[in-house]
Amino acid sequence: MLLVANRGEVAVRVLRAAADLGIRTVAVYAEDDASSLHVTLADRAVALRGPSPYLDADQLLDAAEGCQAVHPGWGFLSENASFARACSERGLAFVGPSADVLELLGDKRRARELAASLGIPVLEAAPGEFPVMVKAVAGGGGKGMRAVYAAEDLSDAVEACRAEALAAFGNGDVYFERLMPSARHIEVQLVGTAVIGDRDCSLQLRHQKVVEIAPAPLLDPLLRKALHEAAAALAVAAGYTGVGTVEFLVSGDSFAFLEVNPRLQVEHTVTEMVSGVDLVRTQLLLAWGGDVDFTPHDRGSAVQVRLNQTSGGVLSSFGLPAGPGVRVDTHGYVGYRVGTRYDGLLAKLVVHGEDLDVALNRARRALGECRVEGVSTNLEFLRSLLARDIVGATTDFVVEETVSGMRAPLAGTVVAVSADSVVLEAMKMQHVVRVSGDVLVSVGDTVSEGQVLASGVGESTEDVAAVDLDHVRPDLAEVLARHDFDRPEAAAKRHARGGRTARENIADLCSSFVEYGGLAIAAQRQRRSLDDLIERTPADGMVAGIGVVNGSRVVAMSYDYAVLAGTQGMRNHQKKDRLFALAQQENLPVVLFAEGGGGRPGDTDHSMVSGLDCGSFHAFAQLSGQVPLVGVVAGRCFAGNAVLLGTCDVIIAVEGANIGMGGPAMIEGGGLGVFQPEDIGPLDVQVPNGVVDIAVGSEEEAVAVAKKYLSYFQAPAGVPSPSAQPSPAPPGGPLDSILPDSTDNSGSWNCADQRLLRHAVPENRLRAYDIRALIETLADTDSVLELRAGFGKAIVTALIRVEGRPIALIANDPKVLGGAIDADAADKCARFLQLADAFGIPVVSLTDTPGFMVGPDAERTATVRHLTRMVVTGANLTVPFGLVVLRKAYGLGAQAMAAGSLKVPQFAVSWPTGEFGPMGLEGAIKLGFKKELDAIADPDERKQRYDQMVAMAYEHGKALNVASVFEIDDVIDPADTRRWIATALAPATSRPEGKKRPFIDTW
Q1: Does the pLDDT at position 402 exceed 90?
Q2: Which residue in 185, 189, 413, 924 is deepest, having the highest Cβ count within 10 Å?
Q3: pLDDT tens for each residue of 881-893
């Protein structure tokens, strides 16, 4: 079965050829093309939808279900390599050359390069040279072509060509070609690499061929031979298969390559008449793998004339010629409604004779027999043209007849006429055209672009009325009124409780914001009036859109608790789905203000039963790991709202918030007791249990934190080099020669005096210290944002900046469990590492740990699984990783802090206070030398010996000794830490499309 992916005359031609071969066929048609003849000739017809249906590859491929091949005809997608490749991927034979050949020859620029490489002359246009021809890269048929004679006309010509080509072929690219005036347009017909014949296509009107002659007359035999050889050479070089045409311009004895049309052409019929080769039959047999004899025969001369419509209408009379040597190809019939949307070709009259004189006389006779009524055509133009001597004419032979009068600026139907105006309707839009003189058209007439409307002198113009720029029309006034979302009473209630409205939070977050679905209302029209819904359910309780935060676009959305308690309604689900899809398509971060009570049972305008087919939760969860997801909550957040909040990478909660998977009603309904909302998931529960990442005192602070959080993911991938933006360092010390001057703080960032780090870790190795103060000193000023500070306290996880560059920092806290890593800390660290890895943020580890937490109590928390989660996550990071050992680096815990091994990080350095070992020194001595120590009876002597062993072990595991065997890269001055981070930690490359990780663990 064959799908014919075209319309009109070419579809009829292909369908008939297929029927002759016994091939079943499928036709396609646009909604306004349903009465076209080709629809009735196929075994099956499929309707297409949309504004450009014949360019919709997906619809065409769907229509090809059950077919073995697709014939693209000409125009539309006939030269589209992507379509040809898609056919192949569906197992369909594309009736034409391969996709690779189409990419080469369908792009006229590449085809010219190929011709030039073979020594075939081409029309190069030198910069600034005029006249030039602007031509579409794709397609043909004279569409997307303009001759330009002066530089000031070039821009308009390019735009016009692009628009025309885009509409016709789906590709608006153009190129320039040197204009060769007074030349003949000669084409060479190919099947594969074999030459079938040639034809003269010089008679053109506005670059559209109107008459073709085969073979090309008055052509020197040597020149004809050179053209055939050039065409064949191109075909061989391109590996061409199928039917195609090579076009040349000929002037005197010279010629130049124009383009290759890798498809069937409108004028193929005139070559068929003189060669005896049925080119469409040949195409189909080649596609089906049959034996084909396409040997051409010399059969006199043939002339083809194209009968074109110049207006729309209904064919009330359609009498076409017949008799010896006359062939007519058409899709028209009496009663056929001819539109103006597509190419104007109505019929091709192809005549044959033993010589050219006979063929021309038959063409004149055939035109004289034509009778067409109901639409205007170019019939009289063709008759007058063939009355002239056209043999050997050049492309500038045909000059459009000058007709006095005022012309239509566009094609359309006349719907009103007055003494000074004609109203044209086109595509359901009316255009008032001002005219003068006698009006020459009547209501109901269909006119073409350029057709004379009135006898006056000058140009007809579309009516442009004067406007008052300050006047607000009623239609706009209605829209503006609906966009007035001010609800003073609801806002006053929020303010009285110390809160802000949803729109106030969005306005504070975004420097610019466009709202999607602001006019939506609750789906409750069956139970409430429209006015009530507009007044009380604006935006269906969800303010959502795209905004700008820190100079970058984000999706911002906020449930509006003042509208139906921020519940999740039908329309706000739809809005979420719309915005989540945009976030996915355009890689936009999402900020969600999640306050609300979950699902809404009161919506009525739907056929829903369970609602479990709602896609919002799935769509939002799929964004995890692709774009940053920020959840903000103030007040109550229960059920579905809490699910969306919990899906976020970070949760920012305002003091007084309550977060729970079910609210009071759901808990009571489940028989689990009666509780007040304030009893469910308060922050004194949700902060220490790790649900909330950052607790803040107000919504204003929450917005500020959300902006700061987003900033770490909006920084450019590249960063300044250390030399361009140095970190402050100590002057006058032994490292002066390699540390930059501390006075250079001229950039957009600054930091504390780094010499403070030399004193951040006490000399007494048993003394705890403030790790957060150390981090604040190390990082750029005001750049530290700690996540989950109240949970898993043995490890600090924070986003910081070093020299303006975002860094994900993990650090042991010696004040909590002596820095030992427990289950909660490991979980917290593992999730933070996933976050950094997903978004390409380099990681720096500040290590001071005696190892993993052990013991019976620890094992009750499933440490084996939780602690190894951190190990597995670290071992599979793809982002740059740097290790700085502050003091203790013992056992498997230290290895976990190093992403698995001291040799994994991009750099592994230690401060002078660093100490290393397979386990804690004291424990190692007590365990490894227990017998020796127990053998010492005197407790004081035993203690003295123990202290000596610890001191010796410390010296052995001291950072300097570890560096001496190159287990670490260096022992550094703490003040030099920033330079190591900025220099040795490779900048993260630009993030690839899609996800690096499937998702970020919500825990």
Answers
A1: no
A2: 189
A3: 999 999 999 999 9
Residue with tokens 């220099």: 983
The CA distance from 34 to 46, in Å, is 10
What sign does the CA torsion over 262, 263, 267, 273 have? positive
Place of tokens 């945009």: 582
Q: Which DSSP string do the residues of 963-980 spell out, in sequence order?
A: HHTTSSSEE--GGGHHHH
What are the φ/ψ torsions at residue 84 (nearest 5 degrees)? -60, -40
Pairing of β 636-638 and β 650-654: unpaired
User: In 10 A of CB 369, how many CB atoms?
Assistant: 13
537 contacts 563 by C-beta, under 8 angstroms: yes
Calculate the average pLDDT of the chain. Answer: 89
Report yes or no: 797 and 828 within 8 Å, Cβ to Cβ: yes
CB atoms within 10 A of CB 773: 12
The alpha-carbon radius of gyration of the chain (Å, integer) is 40
- From 236, 537, 211, 649, select the one nearest 395 (Cα to Cα): 211
DSSP state of 565: G
Catalytic member of 146, 263, 327, 362: 263
Mean pLDDT of 344-363: 97
CA neighbor of 10 nearest in space, from 192, 269, 197: 269
Q: Other CB atoms closer than 10 Å to residue 463's CB: what's the count?
A: 11
CB contact at 8 A, 390 and 196? no
> How would you label 375-393 residue by residue, b for 16+ Cβ within 10 Å and e otherwise?
bbbbbebbeebbeeebeeb
Distance separating alpha carbons of residues 832 and 736, to the nearest angstrom: 36
User: Band of the pLDDT at 739, cuts 50, 70, 90?
Assistant: very low
Sheet strands side by side (includes 25-29): 44-47, 25-29, 2-4, 69-71, 93-94
Token digits of residue 903? 């040799």
What is the total residue count of the chain? 1003
What one-letter code names the amino acid at 692?
V
Contacts of 478 (CB under 8 A, 6+ apart): none
Percent of the chain whose pLDDT exceeds 70: 93
| Residue 202 DSSP one-character state | E
Characterize the bridge pairing of strands 412-417 and 429-434: unpaired
Is 224 one of the catalytic residues? no
Could you tell me the end-to-end alpha-carbon distance of the chain, in angstroms, rounded to an integer? 56
Name the phi and psi angles at 258, rounded to 5. -105, -65
Q: In Å, what is the CA distance from 463 to each residue of 427, 446, 449, 934?
A: 18, 20, 17, 109
Do the beta carbons of residue 311 and residue 297 sit within 8 Å? no
CA atoms within 13 A on the CB side of 773: 11
Backbone angles phi, psi at 66, to 5 degrees: 90, -5
Helices and strands of the chain, counted as H and E runs: 32, 44
Task: Give a three-class secondary structure readout of 642-667.
Answer: HHHHHHCCEEEEECCCEEECCCHHHH
Q: Would you give the DSSP letter of residue 34? A: T
Tokens for 106, please give them.
């369908």
Q: Which of 1-10, 139-148, 522-531 has the highest mean predicted lDDT (pLDDT)?
A: 1-10
d(CA 239, CA 220): 29
Q: In whole angstroms, what is the distance from residue 913 CA to residue 971 CA?
A: 9
What are the tokens at 545?
Answer: 């859109």
Q: Which amino acid is at 921?
A: L
Q: Which residues of 883-906 are buried (b: 16+ CB within 10 A; e: fewer)?
A: bbbbbbbbbbbbbbbbbbebeebb
Of the given ranges (349-358, 906-915, 969-978, 986-995), which has the lowest mean pLDDT? Answer: 986-995
Give me the pLDDT at residue 427, please.
67
Q: CB within 8 A of 367, min separation 6: which ones?
A: 305, 321, 349, 379, 382, 383, 386
Question: pLDDT tens digits for 640-651?
Answer: 999 999 999 999
Task: List, for residues 800-853, the tens digit of each pLDDT value.
Answer: 999 999 999 999 999 999 999 999 999 999 999 999 999 999 999 999 999 998
